[in-house]
Amino acid sequence: MSEPSHHEPQPVAPPVPAQAGLAGLVACEYCDAIYQRAELAQGERALCLRCGGQLYRDSSRAYARLLPLVIAALILFMVSNAYPIVEMDLKGVRTETTLWGAVQALYADNMTLVAVLVFATTILFPLSEMLMMLYLLVPMARHRMPPGFERIVRGIQQTRPWGMIEVFMIGVLVTLVKLSTMAQVLPGVALWSFAALVIVLAAMLSFNPRDLWQHLDEEPPR
What are the alphabetically sorted keywords of the record (predicted)? Predict the structure, then answer.
């Protein structure tokens, strides 16, 4: 094992012995070197001997608060999409609508591609990741392995690039810009809920879904 520094602990992972099995192995995503996973102290991270890239880091503290964060994000997401966030002028009639209503307005205004993009980045992908995380974390909290664990973790990894905070914010901004001629933002419940959702999502997305494998292995058998 390596020596942790006082400022930023960075232990270097030991190479994998020739006789080691597949359990507990980790591959460097930058140079494909294989290592035996070592237990880390709180706040430490393991680095690749070959290229210096980060292999993994201690995620025990993040995992402990992950389920409450996912539940909070789902509640805020529902509130954000249940209350009107923009006021639109449609043929002289002022009407308040939700983000989903704004997506429908974009589609009705012959901006189909933009409407699909906004729907995917602000509703579909964030909601999909939250539901998949909830599906995994609830059984894991009861020390059970969820059915289809491997497929769901891979699904989270595949959708995460589209569910990042930057993409989420761009989707909301595109909606407001495209509707700027006939809509204005309502500073109400939905807007404040969206602001809180961004903060909660940032904390939730800081957790690497690959670390779920480690915490699943740590769960005691039924």
Answer: Membrane, Transmembrane, Transmembrane helix
